[in-house]
Amino acid sequence: MSARAIPLACAAALALAACGHHAEASDEGSDSSHAEVAAATAVASVQPFTHVVPAIGSVVPRPGHFAALGAPAPGRVARVYVAPGDRVATGAPLVQLEQASFAAAASGADAALSAAERGYERAERLSREGIVPRRDVEQAAAALAAARSAAVSARRAQQLSVIRSPIAGVVTRMNAVLGAQVDAGQTLVEVVDPSAFDVELSVGPAEAAELRTGARVALSAGERTGGESLGTGTVTSVGAAVDSGSRAVSVRVAPASPKRALRLGESVYGEIAVGTRPDAVVVPVEALVPEGEGYRVFVVDAQGRATARAVTVGGRTERDVEILSGLKGGEKVVTRGAFGLEDGARVAAPATK
User: Fold this and answer.
1) Can you give the pLDDT at residue 21?
2) Model pLDDT, residue 351
3) Are 338 and 286 in contact (CB under 8 A)?
4) For 212, phi and psi rounded to 5 degrees?
5) pLDDT at 47
6) What number of helices (H) and strands (E) belong to the chain?
């Protein structure tokens, strides 16, 4: 090799070494950029877990403690005794209709009854004497029965022309207007007993099949979890039919000493306890990562490497979720930071301020 070639060869060797060193450094930098990802973790615990069915509903009156009262016959409103919000006793007058038409109807019905009684007695006497056939007596008896029924109805309508409360409670609605004409059966006033409210929740048919009377229910105000706590209640009945409009099943809940007075019609969110598994594997709900139609979690090994693992989910609450399969108690999973995490990434605790 010539003297000129030796320096060129050395330069080439140095250049290759430098390139190799640069590539190695670049690879190390690449590894370090994916070396650790800041994420929070939690240990899967084995503990009792109560499966709940969430539901939305409202406050409703308890059967027998609500009255919607209407006019017994067409008439005109002569007097209104109460207004919405008034508290009334059993038998208290609420609305009075004009009495003249009811008195006239009762008087006419009584007169017709007297005439029917006389007609029956006459037909019976003439039949015994053989003057009229027995068929006339039967017709007179039928007319007498109809007159008696009409008289009873007229007297009852006269009594009901002064609408009275059948229960002690609070007037929640008043539709009667002084001097207005009303129709038979038209609802004029509603009264409810505020000490006898229930909560009526709606659940799907599949969820309803899991429910039993006596189940405990956690109640809160509003239409979602996190609202003002109203205490607990107990399922008293589960509907046997699906509502044709909402396609839901009605579940009635009796509140147990609510933390405040309930208001008729207010929205309530309920979590109905279905059953408790004594040794469930439980992780925070934020550990779940949706995958297709199921879920997965990232399990962290002793070296801090996170591995994706498919899991089967059972019940869940606002904070925790039950894992039926795919995870064992004591294993560490990624919670905050699980979304977007790559399989095999190294996990480090997030920096604290």
Assistant:
1) 45
2) 55
3) yes
4) -135, 150
5) 93
6) 4, 22
Distance of CA 137 to the CA centre of its chain: 61
Angle 134-160/100-128 helices, nearest 10 degrees?
160
The two three-digit tokens of residue 77, written as one number: 């409103």
pLDDT for res 36 = 80
AA identity, residue 86: D
**∠ Cα 195 201 204 (to 5°):** 165
Distance CA 127, CA 121 (A): 10
d(C-alpha 297, C-alpha 331), whole Å: 11
251-263: b or e for each residue (b if 16 or more CB lie within 10 Å)?
Answer: bbbebeebeeebe
Residue 151: exposed, middle, or buried by beta-carbon count in 10 A (0-12, 13-18, 19+)?
buried
Tokens representing 62 are 């308890």
pLDDT (0 to 100) of residue 6: 45
Q: Report angle CA 55, 228, 201 to the nearest 5 degrees.
A: 20
Number of residues that this document lists for the chain: 353
Q: pTM (2 decimals)?
A: 0.62
Question: Cβ(19)–Cβ(226) under 8 Å?
Answer: no
DSSP characters for 230-292?
EEEEEEEEE-SS--TTT--EEEEEEEES-SS---TT-EEEEEEEEEEEEEEEEEEGGG-EEET
Q: If you ran DSSP here, which 8-state letter would residue 341 be given?
A: P
Query: Which residues, at least 6 apart from 214, have a Cβ–Cβ distance to it below 8 Å?
Result: 234, 235
pLDDT score recorded for residue 269:
95
| CA nearest neighbour of 172 among 261, 264, 295, 267 | 264
Tokens of 275: 């059953």
Q: How far apart are CA 323 and CA 314, in angstroms?
A: 6
Can you give the pLDDT at residue 335? 93
Look at the block and give the residue holding tokens 């044709």: 244
Average pLDDT by stretches of 10, the chain with 353 residues = 45 45 44 67 93 92 93 94 96 96 94 95 91 92 96 93 95 94 94 93 93 94 89 95 93 92 92 90 94 93 92 87 94 91 84 52
Query: Torsion over CA of 179, 183, 188 and 193, rounded to 10 degrees?
Result: 150
Residue with tokens 């007319």: 143
